[in-house]
Amino acid sequence: MSVEFNRVKEGEFLRLLKTQSVGKVIAQQSAVDNKYHVIAVIAGQQIAYTVRHGRVDELRTWRLDNLAALLQSVGVKKFEIQMR
Q1: Terminal C-alpha separation, the chain
Q2: Beta bridge partners of residue 53, listed in sequence order
Q3: Could you tell me whether strands 4-8 and 22-29 are parallel, antiparallel, or unpaired per DSSP bridges?
Q4: N or C of the chain: less Cβ packing under 10 Å?
Q5: Measured between alpha carbons, how far is 15 from 35 in angstroms, rounded to an integer?
Q6: 41-48 contacts: CB < 8 A, separation 24 or more?
């Protein structure tokens, strides 16, 4: 079974996290630099969401400390880190 990935803007992603329907949040290291993309997997489903830039369809990246602060601001207490 494959996972359906959806790219959404940051505001929509944060609203999704606030609904608490997310089963797992993953910070995945970028292949380009030492920053991280964020992925949210919906509990019990094969659907995942990631954040894209507002103007272009490229993945948004954060430094890990900034990403952790952003996730904490919407109530995420735990997330997984995947290194490249």
Answers
A1: 23
A2: none
A3: unpaired
A4: N
A5: 23
A6: 41/3, 46/1, 46/2, 46/3, 46/4, 47/3, 47/4, 47/6, 48/3, 48/4, 48/5, 48/6
**Distance of alpha carbon 39 from alpha carbon 65, whole angstroms:** 16
pLDDT at site 35: 96
CB 76 within 8 A of CB 17: yes
Q: Are 31 and 24 in contact (CB under 8 A)?
A: no
Per-residue model confidence as pLDDT tens digits over 6-48: 999 999 999 999 987 899 999 999 998 999 999 999 988 889 9
